[in-house]
Specification:
This protein has about 475 residues and is of the alpha/beta class. The chain is built from 19 helices and eleven strands.
Length: about 475
């Protein structure tokens, strides 16, 4: 990992097993700094919780209370934006933003865990919370850009100068600049020039670290430029209608009554896009199990499986069951879906979600030995293998995950994918189907895995169809392939 500049014309995340590769790269000629010596940004240290780390305490002040804070009573995101554009972040907001940035950059926790911790600790209105999340997500989506503007060249610089990132962000947005304590040596005069330079560089402007640029171009060639730009954009918020308990139109009306604004999604019949900053999980509709939060692209995988009433379906890498619940609903409670995973806590979470959803045809099963798979050979009409992957299709949703170099894990990951596909596919009956899917957009994890599998299993499986969903579609990126067992 270096800050070395590459020719972007020539080179035009996170794993489901909780490996979240993150690399940092500023690619300007005058910043040729080697990061591999620093373990914190080398990809050898995860963003998972470190029990030895202790967060700085957010000390509440009287002025933090709702009734004292002007910005806490604004009606919508646009009102917050206009307020901050005129007055800047409030002292309260700055302390909260800094706490979240330090949690990720200093404590090395994931951004989603930082949000969960701080928004549980510091209660604020959902609209203000949504506004702050939007700003912080953008900071992480362009971390290399703001690092360049802030003149931060090493990982250790982030730990000492987190405040500079917020300062650079406000300068980028042309908002009032916050106080910058203890930064007497920081050159503020060159901010506009450095911002202009960064915007002219496609990797900075798209928020693309060098490792991801090199990987994306090597795998996708000329297609990568469009996908790189899309991955640097803002993610959309989608939910899936639970058809066990109602229709999409009924769900939209009930959410509207609770102040949640949604719109239908073309080509995804169960999906609604949430367009308001609403506390979805506090709604009565959620508590009654009327929907689950699930990307529209992910919902297309559930459609692709085409699970039918009365079938025996296996979700072999179920996790906490997002796709499992969709399959159970499409089966109308008839037949059985066996949800399998190697992590017991994920299956426990699935049980709670299934109860809320009214999905009673799900049978969780822990994979605690190879015998579990062998006992189920040729037992299923359909087997979904949602394989562990690099997560390159979903880094827009988790912008912190791209700042560690994920390439060193890829070979091991491809081996895991091939092994799972080889062993788990045997659970399909002759005449049944295996559906292989990932949330990666890299061919080496997708169609090349299928090609290799078919070559090794000639006369046993045939490819029925496969599909790519790319981030440029507006959804997260996914791949899916349907194989029929013929022998």
């Amino acid at each position: 990992m270096t800050f070395e500049k590459k020719d972007s014309r020539k080179q035009s995340a996170h794993y489901k097993n909780n490996n979240k590769p993150v690399a940092h790269s500023n690619n300007q000629k005058d910043n040729q700094t080697e990061f591999k010596k620093d373990r914190k940004f080398s990809g050898k240290k995860d963003f998972s919780r470190n029990s030895d780390n202790k967060r700085t305490s957010f000390k509440p002040r009287n002025s933090d209370k709702f009734k004292f804070r002007e910005e806490s009573r604004l009606a919508d995101t646009q009102a917050h934006t206009e307020h901050v554009k005129r007055k800047g972040f409030s002292e309260f907001q700055l302390r909260l933003v800094t706490s979240i940035l330090e949690d990720v950059l200093v404590m090395h926790n994931s951004l989603d865990r930082a949000y969960a911790f701080w928004f549980n600790k510091v209660k604020i209105d959902p609209v203000e919370q949504g506004f702050l999340i939007k700003q912080i997500n953008f900071m992480f989506s362009r971390l290399s850009l703001f690092a360049f503007v802030s003149n931060l060249k090493r990982p250790s610089d982030f730990e000492r100068h987190v405040g500079r990132l917020t300062f650079a962000y406000c300068a980028y947005k042309d908002w009032p600049l916050p106080e910058l304590e203890g930064e007497e040596g920081f050159d503020r005069r060159g901010l506009k020039k450095r911002i202009a330079e960064a915007k002219d560089d496609p990797l900075y402007n798209d928020g693309c670290p060098l490792w991801l640029q090199e990987l994306g171009y090597s795998e996708l060639k000329s297609k990568w430029d469009e996908e790189r730009k899309a991955l640097g954009g803002e993610s959309h918020r989608f939910i899936r209608t639970n058809t066990i308990k109602g229709t999409r139109d009924e769900l939209a009306h009930k959410l509207s009554d609770e102040g949640v604004v949604t719109k239908s999604v073309g080509g995804v019949p169960l999906a609604l896009e949430v367009t308001s900053n609403s506390a979805l999980f506090r709604t009565k509709a959620f508590k009654e199990g009327l929907f689950e939060q699930q990307d529209a692209g992910s919902q297309l995988i559930g459609q692709f499986v085409d699970a039918k009433s009365g079938e025996r379906v296996i979700d072999a890498c179920a996790g906490s069951g997002g796709k499992t619940l969709q399959l159970a609903a499409s089966m109308e409670g008839k037949g059985v879906i066996i949800a399998m995973d190697t992590e017991a806590w994920k299956l426990e979470d699935l049980k709670k979600r299934a109860k809320r959803a009214g999905a009673f045809n799900i049978e969780p099963r822990l994979i605690d030995s190879t015998k579990v798979i062998k006992r189920m050979v040729e037992s299923a009409d359909k087997v979904l293998i949602d394989a562990p992957c690099s997560g390159t299709g979903v880094i827009r949703r988790m912008p912190d995950s791209k700042w560690r170099d994920g390439r060193e894990h890829l070979k091991e990951l491809r081996d895991v994918q091939a092994d799972i596909l080889e062993r788990y596919s045997k659970m399909a009956k002759v005449g049944g189907y295996v559906i292989y899917s990932t949330c990666s957009i890299m061919p080496s994890e997708n169609e090349k895995q299928i090609e290799k599998f078919l070559e090794n299993n000639q006369g046993k499986f045939e490819l029925v169809e496969d599909k790519h969903i790319m981030p440029s579609s507006g959804f997260d990126g996914f791949y899916m392939a349907k194989l029929k067992r013929i022998g």
